[in-house]
Write a structure and sequence with these properties.
Number of strands: 10
Shape: elongated
Distance between the termini: 75 Å
Order of helices and strands: HEEEEHEEHEEHEEHHH
Helix content: 25-40%
C-alpha cells in the first residue's frame, strides 16, 4: 500500500484539448489552408485569410496561387469576437462552451485525484492538493528522532497519539536545547580565549 501511495505526480496531466460542437461552421470562419476555424487569423496580400501558423511569407496561397509577400494580422474586433463565440466541447470534461472561454476553463477543468482520495480537483489546485491529499505518504513527526513509521496522511494523527518516540519529544527537545546551549557557549569561550592568546602574542612580539 505504501509503495502505491508513495508519489504524487508533480504536474497535472497535459491541458485538455477541445473539439467543435458543430461540424457545419460558416465558410468565412475557416482557414484557407487547414480548413478548420481560424486561429490567430492573418490575411495575405491576396486578401485570403489563414491561421497564423498555416501560412509563411513566399509561400503560395492555396486558393489563388498568388505568392504571399505580405502577412497582416486581422484586428477587426467584431470578426475576432465571432470566432471566439464558436461552440466547442472540452475533451477533458465534455463541457460545452464558447471557444473564447477555453483558455480560462483549462485551469478549472476538473480532474480526479490520482491517489483516489475521492476528491475532484482542478489544475489550478493541483499543487496544493498534492501536499494536502489524505492519501499522501507522510513520515511521523518524530522521524527526526528515528521513528520509522510512514503512512497515509489520514492516519498520521492517529499514529502520533500512540507513537512512543513522539511521547519522548519533551525529553529529546530538552537534551537538544542543552546541547545547543553548551556548544554555543563553548564556541564563544574558544573565540574569547583565541582573542586573548592573540593579544598576548602581539604584546610579546612588541
Amino acid at each position: 500500500m505504501v509503495d502505491e501511495l508513495d508519489t504524487f505526480p508533480p504536474e497535472p496531466p497535459a491541458d485538455p484539448e477541445y473539439c467543435y460542437a458543430d461540424d457545419k461552421i460558416a465558410e468565412e470562419y475557416l482557414c484557407e489552408v487547414c480548413r478548420s476555424p481560424l486561429q490567430n487569423p492573418v490575411t495575405g496580400n491576396c486578401d485570403h485569410v489563414f491561421c497564423e501558423k498555416c501560412i509563411d511569407i513566399e509561400s503560395n496561397c492555396p486558393t489563388c496561387n498568388e505568392k504571399v509577400s505580405e502577412i497582416s494580422k486581422i484586428k477587426l474586433k467584431r470578426f475576432l469576437a465571432l470566432l471566439d463565440k464558436i461552440k466547442i466541447v472540452c475533451k477533458g470534461c465534455n463541457q460545452e462552451m464558447e471557444r473564447g472561454e477555453f483558455s480560462s476553463h483549462k485551469e478549472l477543468c476538473p480532474l480526479v485525484c490520482p491517489k483516489e482520495c475521492g476528491l475532484i480537483i482542478s489544475r489550478k489546485l493541483w499543487h496544493y492538493h498534492s501536499s494536502h491529499c489524505d492519501r499522501m505518504i507522510k513520515p511521523c513527526t518524530a522521524a527526526e528522532f528515528s521513528c520509522s513509521w510512514i503512512g497515509p496522511k489520514a492516519e498520521l494523527e492517529e499514529h502520533i497519539k500512540t507513537c512512543p518516540i513522539e511521547k519522548l519529544r519533551p525529553a529529546f527537545d530538552k537534551v537538544r536545547n542543552e546541547s545547543i546551549s553548551y556548544v554555543t557557549g563553548h564556541k564563544y569561550e574558544c573565540s574569547w580565549r583565541n582573542g586573548k592568546l592573540h593579544g598576548y602574542s602581539y604584546s610579546y612580539s612588541n
